[in-house]
Amino acid sequence: MSRFLIATAAALGLALGAAGSAQAADSKQVYDFYCAQCHGTDGKGKGINVTKDFATDPRNLTSSSEMEKRSDEDLRGVIKDGGPSISKSALMPHWRSTLTADEVEGLVKYIRKLCDCKGK
Fold this sequence. Notes:
Helix content is about 55%, strand content about 0%. The protein contains five helices and no strands. It has helices spanning about 5-35, 35-40, 65, 70-80, 100-115. Helix 1 packs across helix 5 (about 100-115) and helix 4 crosses helix 5 (about 100-115). The protein is globular.
């Protein structure tokens, strides 16, 4: 294999690795902007919008026992179509017109990282 091909393959590998890291950082930024106000920056459901008279407790996204009950498709659905799409609170807004498919997919992966669990 020529040195050129080896160098090209190495550069491509570095670029793909950087893209993956950038996507992870982007997913956290998307989460922090759209989700953390209710779910908290740590995912425990105690965001700055949650007050003692808040009508419902936002989901604790770090609870493995609760989050493993939901499939990735459930998570995509609730992100895109809001709480009522999975028989949960209407206070969970839909983001279908706001987030891209890649952003939704990134959020699903980020939430799975928060709960350290896989869905059903």
